[in-house]
Amino acid sequence: MTFLTKLDPSEQRTEQLSLSQRGRAGLEALGALQAFSSSAVRRRARESFEADAEARALSDQEPRPANVTEWRRWLRSATEIAGRLPAYRIERFHQRYVAEEIYRRGIPAVEERRESFEAFFRMPEGPTLGTLELDPSVPVPKYYDKVEWHLEPGGWDGYDLYSALFAFAVGPYVFRHGGYAAVEVGDDILEHRAQAVRQLPKRNYRRIYEPGCGGFSTMAAANSVFPDAELVASDLSPLLLETGHIMAERQGVRVQFKQRDARDTREPDASFDAVIMFALMHEMPVDVVRDTFREALRILEPGGDLIISDPPPFYAVSPFQAVVLNWDTRHRGEPFFTDACAADWAAELREIGFVDAEAYSLGEQGYPWITRASKPV
Ligand SMILES: C[S@@+](CC[C@H](N)C(=O)[O-])C[C@H]1O[C@@H](n2cnc3c(N)ncnc32)[C@H](O)[C@@H]1O
Fold it and tell me: Is 4 contained in some domain?
């Protein structure tokens, strides 16, 4: 889901940073279950759904829903049909089981190696390349506070070793297989970030900004595609910023990390030539997204480019896939998933003043879904 970091393979393999056999086996079982269920069982569910006469009538319905209220109504009917299918029910049961169980098994597995992980996520000795600017006065928005995003106990900052959990436990043994939310089995979510960065239309950028960076993953991709660009990344979560900073330093990449709300970056007008938003829109209410777009427009210089990668809109996926995406809202700690998938970000960007807004898919089932636009010259 978030802030995975490509580690040097030697780091992944060292005795101290690997999990105990028991910890590893528990997570490997979850990864295998999710991969099997999201491919074979989901395929069966999709076929049954598409063969259902009521589902076909709903899919052929014209015009397609035009706004979030209509989508909700449409999704209620489609979900009711899917809910009658045994393959759909068991596949969704597996999704929820894995989504909860990764923390129940992953946290104790990380705790067994607490000392080694704490040592790994400590700042390396010596001079630093980048900076970390924490500012506790940045208000925590109401929509953000106390939500257990993706069912993470305590939310983004709920466990001090979440970075170890994702980098050394859940990442390599479960998420690596894909098969959750919009991510298909076999997808590589780190490669998705590089693919998204490569959608920036120019060959050179001077200064790139990422609001809602979560850590270092997308900035690492930006650095690999545009090694000469100056990188500035911000987020609300101090924990994610701290570990992002440490990972960037370990990998020798200069990034300025700042604790900021995406709607109020405090950067000067027209000070960046590119802005990247990866997996951010669906974590916010739509009015917050609009303010985030306005802020991006403000800090971009004329002619600057914006790239967004987020789950696809319902209109761009099959009816069955829309049911699958919508499920995350109620069942995987994603309160804004439905609203985000019912939105049309390219249209919103045009309304706010961006030009050349376009949206397209890079993969099957509409994901990764890219929206890009530019600030008028
Ligand atoms: C799913 S994560 C994506 C992280 C990152 N972009 C990546 O590629 O992995 C969403 C992030 O958005 C952050 N976020 C949510 N609302 C925000 C806001 N108003 N301002 C800044 N960050 C925000 C969360 O703290 C979280 O780190």
Answer: no
Residue with tokens 């930006």: 222
Q: Residue 238 belongs to what domain range?
A: 9-374
**C-beta 217 within 6 A of ligand 1:** yes
For the residues 14-42, what does the mean pLDDT come to? 91
The domain that holds 128 is classified in CATH as 3.40.50.150
- As given in the structure block, the two tokens for residue 196 are 């998204």
Instruction: Establish whether residue 236 lines the binding site of ligand 1, counting it when its CB lies within 6 angstroms of any ligand atom.
Output: yes
Locate the ligand 1 atom nearest the alpha carbon of residue 149 and give its number: 1
Does 125 fall in a domain? yes
Question: What is the DSSP annotation of 178-207?
Answer: --BTTBPTT--HHHHHHHHHTTSSSS--SE
Residue 3 lies in a domain: no
- Domain tally, the chain: 1
Which of 4, 223, 231, 235 to mutate for ligand 1's pocket (most ligand atoms within 8 Å of CB)? 235
262-311 pLDDT, tens per residue? 999 999 999 999 999 999 999 999 999 999 999 999 999 999 999 999 99
Could you give the residue ranges of the DSSP H alpha helices within the chain?
A: 9-13, 21-36, 42-51, 53-60, 68-83, 86-111, 114-120, 162-164, 171-173, 189-197, 217-225, 238-250, 286-299, 319-331, 337-342, 345-352
Q: Is the CB of 3 under 6 A from ligand 1?
A: yes
- 338 falls within a domain: yes
Cα–Cα nearest to 246, from 129, 138, 106: 129
Average pLDDT over residues 338-367: 96
CA dist., res. 295 & res. 289, Å (int): 10
Average pLDDT over residues 357-362: 97
Predicted pLDDT at 11:
54
pTM, entire model:
0.94
**Residue with more model confidence, 16 or 301:** 301
